[in-house]
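Quick bug: YgaC family protein output formatted oddly.
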Amino acid sequence: MSDARPAPGTEMVFQWRKWDGSPHWRHECVYLGADHWGDWVGQPAGWHSARPGAEFHAATPNVTLVPPSRDFALTVNRRHPRGLRIYIDLGWEVQWSDDPLRAVGIDMDLDVVRVEGERGTWVDDRDEWAEHSVVYGYPADVMTHLEALALDLEGRVRARVAPFDDATADVWLDRLEALDLAPRLNA
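Here's what came back:
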């Protein structure tokens, strides 16, 4: 794990993998900076995300917080077409690699989602969590920690406690949009 960070505005990659080491989502991003919550990276509208069997270009700008706790990544969208405001990937070893242009993490299936409107906030992908806990053999202490964390995060998102409030991420979304980076629709 590196303590080095790129200069704000530098292109980088956020690379997820699964517990067994197989590749998962790879997001093209730009480093935005840090605050007392952790490091923030952004993905402008039109930038590419891919995993084996799926890919997309970000419909709208989003920012992701990589907190020092190393057990989740908080993504906040702006103007998402389906109202998706917050998506938290619970993870393991979510951190900077030895390469300061690459953040990494192990995707642990459970997610906390907040959608504007009636659907509200919930813990998602419990079925995938249950299935993968058997397939990958998640350790009991990891499972206990992440199950409790999912419920804690769900409560904090519902209460809109910083950094899960709109104001905290909006500062970083404004910085991302001020970079005025072009879409990459041919990636």
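Actually, after a second look the formatting is fine. Helices lie at 126-135, 140-159, 166-178. Closing.
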